[in-house]
Here is the input.
Amino acid sequence: MGASAGRISTCILIVDDNPDNVTILRDRLEARGYSTLVARDGEEALAAVGALDAPLPPGAVLPDLILLDVMLPKVDGFEVARRIKANRSLPFIPIMIQTALDTTEDKVVGLDSGADAYITKPINLTELEAGIRSMLRIKSLQEEIERQRAELATKNDQLIRIARTDSLTGIDNRRQLEERLVETFEHSRRLQEPFACVMCDLDKFKSVNDTYGHQAGDEVLRQFAHLLRDHAREIDWVGRYGGEEFMLILPGATPDAAVAFAERMRKAVEGRTFSFAGTDIRRTVSCGVAGWPHPQIADVEALIRAADNGLYAAKSGGRNRVERWDTETSTSTDDAAPTAVGAAADTSDGPAGHTLHDLRADDGQHRADITTNTHASDVGGGRDSLGGGRRPAGEDRGTPPGA
Ligand SMILES: [Mg+2]
Here is the structure.
C-alpha cells in the first residue's frame, strides 16, 4: 500500500490484486488530479480505512472514494464493502465495485453488500471518471447534511442550556431546579438516602431596587448567587427560584446538616457587603429547610411546600434566620411546626410558640394558615408551589397579619 502526494486533492483508494490494473488506474486518476492509495488484498483495503484490527493512526488520510475489485486474496471485495459500510466510526465513503463478474446476480450481491456503484471490467476509463465525479458529488452532499446536523445539534444544546439557566445570575433557573428536584427525589428514594432542600430569600430586597435602582438590585442578586454557589458543595444544585428567592438541593444531606449549611450561609450573607458602582449594600437572608425522608413528604411538591413554609416562618419570625420545617412537635398530622435555629433562635424576642399550619387541602388548593398561641390568621392563597398560584416573585414575604 502506498500513498502518492499528501492531502492536497481528493484521495481514491484503488483495491486490486492485479499490478497492471493498479498501474493503469493510478496513472489515469493521478493525471486527472486525484491522489491515490493502493491496497493489494482485502485486508490491506480494510487496514487503509482503519477497519481491520486497529483504527487509523492520528493524521492518517482516509480515502474519499474506494475503487474496489471483487476477486481479492484474503477477504473478497463484497466482504470488504460490507465491513466498511457496517463500521459506524467511518464517515460516508463511496464504494465503486469493479469486476469482471457481470451477471445480474453478481451486481445484486455487490450492491447489497453496501457498494454504491458497480462498474464492469474491462473498464472504460471515461465512464469510470464520470462515475467517480457522480459519487463525489453524493459524498459532498452527504457531508453537507452531516455538517448541518452537527450545527443543529450544537444549537439545540445551546437552547437547552439557555432554557435551563437563569439569565441574570447564570445559575439554574426554576424549571431546571424542579427537574433536578424530581431526579434527586427519585435517586434518594432508590438508594434510601436522605436529601434536603433549602429555600432562601433575601430580606427586604425590594428596598434595594427602590433605593439604588434595578441595576443595583440585579448586581446584588448576581453576587448573592455566586455566594451561594461558593458555599455549596460540588454535588449540590443551586438555582434561582424566582425574584430574590433561591433554592439549594443538597443530595445526601440530613436535615441537621442542611440547617448547619444554611446557617453558615446566613452568617456569610450577614457579614457580606454587596457592592454596586461604589455603593455598599448590606442585606440579610432568611432560609427554610426541609428534608427527606419525612412521613409527610411524599413527593417533590410537598417538599417544596415544606421548605417554603419554613422560609415563611423565618420571615414571620423576624427574618435573618433559618427555620427547619418539621411536624414532630405538632399534635395533628397535617400541622407543621418549624423549629427555629440560628441567630433568632437564641434570642427571646421572636414570636414564641409560632406554629405554621400547611399542607391542608381546601377545594384542591393548598393554603397556609399561620397560628400563634393566641389567635390564628389566614394568610390566604399564594403559598402554593410548583406553579400553583404561588405568590408573585420579587415580593418580600414580610410579617403575616396577626403575627
Ligand atoms: Mg482481482
Remarks:
- The radius of gyration is 35 Å.
- The mean pLDDT is 83.
- The chain is about 40% helix and 20% strand.
- The pocket of magnesium ion is lined by residues 16-18, 69, 71-72 (CB under 6 Å).
